[in-house]
Amino acid sequence: MRPPYLLLDIDGVLIPFPDADGSTPATHSRHDVVPTGRSADNPVAVWLDPAHGPMLMDVIRTGLVTPVWCTSWRQDATTLIGPLLGLSPLSHVELPRPRITTSHPHGYLWKRDHVDAWLAGAPAVWIDDDFTSLEHAWAAERTAKGTPTSLVQPDPHLGLQPEHVIEVMTWISRLPTVRAA
After folding, report:
1. What is the 3-state secondary structure (H, E, C) of 106-170?
2. Is residue 25 scored above 60 in pLDDT?
3. Beta-carbon contacts of residue 23 (< 8 Å; ≥ 6 apart)
4. Beta bridge partners of 66
5. C-alpha dihedral sign at 108, 80, 153, 6
6. From CA 70, how far away is CA 84, in angstroms rounded?
7. Most buried by CB count within 10 Å: which residue of 7, 14, 32, 52?
């Protein structure tokens, strides 16, 4: 079996959402970045935990997953966010820019249909903070049909934690023989 994809979201996973009082975890440092389409005099402030890079690299270096950004940051994930965490360049799922006012316009995460088509039957472990019960049912159905699929859902105010990485590695260890890429 080929290594599963490790799909990585950014907002709510690597960049936590502020609490009601505007605070972010003390582990995170502020960075100003200039996403595609913005000018240098209008940067976006992001808060990143420097421990996330080494945690993710530990998983990536095993060769047991194929890491891919799965985020509305698209290519900016590789050029702006990844380098701040010390991550090597990763490919990304080319997600559209939908005109939506909620991340669940059809009752489920707007990315899911695009991810499903992009995966084309490949196994995957997907880390995102915004899953609904419908994504969990989708993952269970894929798994039941022979395509191992796991969802890892961090708290969007805390982001990725060591236990999420352990969850990914535990899931991978239970797969039929995975060969490093």
Report:
1. CCCCCCHHHHHHHHCCCCEEEECCCCCHHHHHHHHHHHHCCCCEEEECCCCCCCCCHHHHHHHHH
2. yes
3. none
4. 5
5. positive
6. 17
7. 14
